[in-house]
Specification:
Low-confidence stretches: none
Number of domains: 2
Oligomer: single chain
CATH architecture of the largest domain: 3-Layer(aba) Sandwich
Radius of gyration: 18 Å
Shape: globular
Bound molecules: 2'-O-acetyl adenosine-5-diphosphoribose
Mean pLDDT: 93
Strand content: 15-25%
Largest sheet: 6 strands, parallel
């Protein structure tokens, strides 16, 4: 039994990280969707750095929750039969113990040098323009995917979607592509599809099954069910 799980901001909400489209959706009066673009970075790098520096600093104040931990437990059991794809730039999946995580929108705790193309683990601010540890140029940017840029590891994700028996989306609004289309790849091949979300999303009607509620309740219950029942039958 091969499983692909896609997570979005909703899985980290109960850890204390705000989602993109809930609440008033504004950051310092700006639409985060407008801040997260290469054009914004070119026009106002201080603003974009401040946005990501605040979000990177917030990671030090939060912990993984029961939903992250349940997915790590699922990986322990399924090993390479599970691929966890996240749109989140936080590191809560890794801190909960997941190892096979694809960060299709990049990672906050990484800096990317636009001069030498190297990537470096990074927990400090970038707004004060620190030099790249590799080449010394003050050319580091957040290692995240902005609107208009290409998401990471798409070939690996598409291959896993092609091969899986079950596709599960957790805590994502289903409005940002290409992630929003993964359910179509999967359901087009007759793969079972399940959405676990607080409420109905834009993509809900594309899923065969839905469960509504907070991720910290839904995800551990679903993982327990899968480990107890489905797996035994299909192994
Ligand atoms: P959104 O903020 O668009 O959606 C979060 C979803 O999580 C919503 O459908 C909520 O109902 C749901 N939700 C909120 N709290 C929840 C909880 N406790 N348990 C379960 N579900 C909950 O976030 P994403 O779908 O992740 O991209 O956004 C996708 C992309 O848009 C992001 O990766 C980011 C953003 O622009 C880039 O920055 C490129």
């Amino acid at each position: 039994m091969k499983v692909v799980v896609l997570t979005g901001a909703g899985i980290s909400a109960e850890s204390g990280l705000p989602t993109f489209r809930d609440a008033d959706g504004l950051w310092e009066g700006h639409d985060p969707m407008v801040v997260a673009t290469p054009e914004s970075f070119a026009a106002d790098p201080d603003l974009v750095h401040r946005f990501y520096d605040q979000r990177r600093a917030a990671l030090a104040r939060v912990e993984p929750n029961a939903a992250h931990r349940a997915l790590a437990q699922l990986e322990e059991r399924l090993g390479d039969r599970l691929l966890l794809v996240t749109q989140n730039v936080d590191d809560l999946h890794e801190r909960a113990g997941s190892r096979r995580v694809v960060h299709m929108h990049g990672r906050l705790r990484s800096a990317w040098c636009t001069a030498c193309d190297a990537r470096h683990a990074w927990t400090d601010p970038l707004g004060d323009r620190p030099p790249c540890p590799g080449c010394g140029e003050a050319a580091l940017r957040p290692d995240v995917v902005w609107f208009g840029e290409v998401p990471r590891e798409m070939e690996r994700i598409e291959r896993a979607l092609w091969e899986c028996d079950l596709f599960v989306a957790i805590g994502t609004s289903g409005v940002v592509y290409p992630a929003a289309a993964f359910v179509h790849y999967a359901s087009g091949r007759g793969t079972r599809t399940l959405e676990l979300n607080l409420d109905a999303s834009e993509a809900s009607s594309d899923f065969a099954e839905h469960r509504r509620g907070p991720a910290t309740r839904l995800v551990p219950a679903w993982v327990e069910e899968l480990l107890a029942g489905d797996l035994r039958e299909q192994e």
